[in-house]
Amino acid sequence: MERFAPGETRAVTVQATAARASLDGELSLVAPEGWTTTPAIHKFALPAVGDKAEVTFAVTAPSRPESVKLAVSATVGGRPFNRTPHVVAYDHIPVQMLQPTATLTAMSFDLAIRGEQVGFLAGAGDTTVEALTLMGYEVKLLTDADITAEGLADLDAVVLGIRAFNTRPNLMEYRDVLWAFVRSGGNVMVQYNTTSGLPNGDLGPYPFRLSRDRVTDETAAVTVLDREHPAMVGPNRITAADFAGWVQERGLYFSSEWDAAYTPLLSMADPGEAPTEGSLLVAQHGEGYFVYTGLSFFRELPAGVPGAYRLLANLISL
Q1: Among 124, 143, 235, 291, which is most buried by a count of CB atoms within 10 Å?
Q2: Domain-ending residue, one of 108, 129, 163
């Protein structure tokens, strides 16, 4: 995955591996309309099985914001080859080989960030670290031992992976450290947790209750409830356009009740259902901010949805 500023040119490297000996051919990187790649082809020669050819293309994004797939193709002896091997290996299933089409997600959009260092505490597993790095942050992977005043001192924000409180019950013991970090000017963002198997206790510095509320229609209308809230205005101005192109859903496990210290920022609903306002709650606590969100960043970021990156940047930058 690569992120471009509108109109920016970046180097994209492609690698081909020989599955048999004595391969001569050409590599190309095919882009949708509005994107350009140069040169048109790179020639390669691979004498032995396992030899690799690595070539670089200059890719220029259009001025408009969008997310596309760049297709990689090799031509050998007049035949095209466009698959990439992916081995699936787990102890509980037989080893499997998948060969999906070789593509690269390329995103073109304006993005501004504040702060430099973000701590990430893993939950059930998502691609937030890759997204944060792509956005320009330096990411520190946190363990329980790092959740101390000293361990968080150099960070601008801490992001918890999806279902962190579900998968790390002992995380409840470190809440006071996290809230002290917020009081001193840091930001903490908690992504969705499920109601099943949730430890007792508040998940934020002020109480809020999780529910099974969700919005499964990825095109459901989203209303910004406070357009001038800091999370909506900077460093990226969030508009309806930032909720276009979302995949699979809007979010899940929204809050249904919350303390008056929280500001709900978004309203949304599946067709025929009442609007819900618990998808994104923000509270100032001392000099910093706490965020709970059930928005499906874990789906939108790997899908290359520009608006998800822009909104995430704002929440981290509070």
Answers
A1: 291
A2: 108
CA-based nearest residue to 116, from 143, 155, 153, 152: 155
Distance CA 113, CA 128 (A): 15
Interval 9-39: pLDDT, tens = 999 999 999 999 999 999 999 999 999 999 9
Tokens at residue 80, please? 């095209």
Amino acid letter, residue 100: P
For 156, what's the count of Cα atoms within 13 Å in the CB-facing half-sphere? 16
Q: Using one digit for the tens of pLDDT, what is the confidence trace for 102-116?
A: 999 999 999 999 999
Same domain? 139 vs 215 = yes
Residue written as tokens 């070539």?
Answer: 55
Residues 237-271 pLDDT 10s: 999 999 999 999 999 999 999 999 999 999 999 99
Residue closest to 5 by CA, chosen among 133, 138, 139, 135: 135
> Residue 70's domain is classified under what CATH number?
2.60.40.2310
- Measured CA to CA, the distance from residue 287 to residue 82 in angstroms comes to 52
Distance CA 213, CA 273 (A): 11
Question: Which pLDDT value is given to residue 197?
Answer: 87
Cα Dmax for the chain: 70
DSSP, collapsed to helix, strand or coil, labels residue 84 as: coil
Q: Tell me which residue range forms the domain holding 164.
A: 117-317
